[in-house]
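We emphasize that the prediction below concerns an isolated chain of 170 residues; any contacts that depend on oligomerization or on bound cofactors are therefore not represented. The input was used exactly as deposited, without trimming of termini.
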Amino acid sequence: MTLIRRAAVDQQEWLSAEEFNRHWALCQMTPGINLLALAILLGRHIAGMRGIVICVFGLLFPSAVATALLTSAYLTIRQLPGTQAVLLGLLPASVGLGLITSVQMGRGPAIFAWKAGAFQMLFTMFLVIGSGYLLATGTLSVTLVLVMAGVIGGLEGYVRSRFKRPEESK
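Result of the prediction step, given as a token string:
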């Protein structure tokens, strides 16, 4: 995910950070493999049907080859103490990658909320903390939390647009 975002947004500039976030949010709502869905959306965005084929191949082929090779190598060295130590180091690094990707993706909505005012900032924090809580407690599925957050955000936007003060319209 981090590598895909870096390539698509930062290096190639095929789409903006906001577009990438929207694509990722849509992929989170759909069942199945999220990165595959993201590759399909990015491929379509970049080059239509040809882009879909290239992105899906680019995602799956190297991953399949690397997985086959790493699995084969791991089976022969899995009991070595050094292998176990390496695996213990990989987990924190994976968490770090997830955190940095979250920060990168959250930067845009946070800046928007900050510029929109105190209410929008509190509302955004409510959605972030509330969604995190519901997912951390295992109360609801990821899909349901995303749908609920989308509905709540949509309702907030609708109410805000309907009751906007005249000086805000300028």
